[in-house]
Structure prediction request, 75 residues.
Amino acid sequence: MSHTFTAYIEFDPDTSMYVGTIPGLTGAHSQGATLDELRTNLQEVIELILEEKRSLGESVYVEPFVGIQQIAVEA
Prediction:
C-alpha cells in the first residue's frame, strides 16, 4: 500500500542543514545537507515508523495536513 505524506521543511542557518517534519506523524522528522538527502532521510524515518506501528498492531492513520499560511505584519 502506498502513502503520500507532506513534509514541512526549513533551513537552519546555524547548522546549514535542511530540517523536515511530517505533520501528523509523531516522531517523523530528520535533517539533511541537501534537499535530496533530506527527502531520503524522511522516507526512511516514515518507513521505520510505519513498520513499527504495524508490528505493534497500531493504526497507521495519519492526521490530515491542513496547510501553511503566510501572515504579514508591520515590524
In short: Helices lie at 35-55. Residues 12 and 19 are 7 Å apart (CA to CA). The chain is about 30% helix and 20% strand.
